[in-house]
Design brief:
InterPro entries: DUF8009. Residues 7-150 form the DUF8009 domain. It comes from Halopiger xanaduensis (strain DSM 18323 / JCM 14033 / SH-6). The protein folds into 2 domains: 1-76 and 129-150, no CATH class; 77-128. Helices cover 39% and strands 25% of the residues. The protein starts with a helix and ends with a strand. The longest helix has 22 residues, at 104-125. A 6-stranded mixed beta sheet has the order 4-2-3-1-6-5, with helices on one face. Helix 2 packs antiparallel against helix 6. It has 6 helices and 6 strands, in the order H-E-H-E-E-H-E-H-H-H-E-E. By secondary structure, the protein is of the alpha/beta class. It has helices spanning 3-7, 21-33, 62-65, 78-82, 87-96, 104-125, and strands at 16-19, 37-42, 49-57, 68-70, 132-137, 140-148. The chain is elongated.
């Protein structure tokens, strides 16, 4: 075996990713609601079947670690992504109704309603995991199967 294959650093060796639907939707929701980035991370040594785990970061270390980061939106179906609840939409609806300023209790009620909507979305989105995903590697794109855990 040549260098990359022998040491397991070649991500094109991966044929399938085992993904927890909960990890995927949590990573997506985290990225929408918080600073920083949440991805599904696969770390070397690479082999045919790999487990992708949720990983939150502020600095991308893939060049140092050799890890592959899979954006959670790549493993969730487009229609589920489009259904993600937008807090801004709820505030905009109030603005259209002529509410110029929100009382603290009204703003808190909207935040709570938004959090509940996100939880409902997460439950639905866990059923919308795709069957394949494309990994971006130094050698180009590499398509793999996605296997649901759980």
């Amino acid at each position: 075996m040549e260098g990359d294959e022998a040491d397991g650093s070649d991500p094109t060796r991966i044929r399938s990713l085992a993904v927890s639907p909960e990890d995927a939707v949590n990573a997506y929701a985290y990225g929408r609601e918080n600073p920083g980035e949440a991805v599904l991370r696969v770390t070397p040594p690479f082999h045919g079947r790999m487990r992708a785990r949720i990983h939150v970061y502020r600095v991308d270390d893939t060049q140092v670690t050799g890890a592959v980061h899979v954006p959670p939106e790549d493993v969730i179906a487009d229609d589920a992504l489009a259904a993600y609840p937008q807090l801004e939409d709820e505030f905009d609806d109030l603005a259209e109704d002529g509410v110029a300023e929100l009382a603290d209790d009204e703003a808190e009620r909207l935040r709570k309603r938004h959090a509940e909507a996100v939880e409902d979305w997460q439950e639905r989105a866990e059923t919308a995991i795709v069957e394949t995903v494309t990994l971006e590697t130094d050698d180009g794109s590499h398509r793999v199967d996605v296997k649901r855990l759980g």
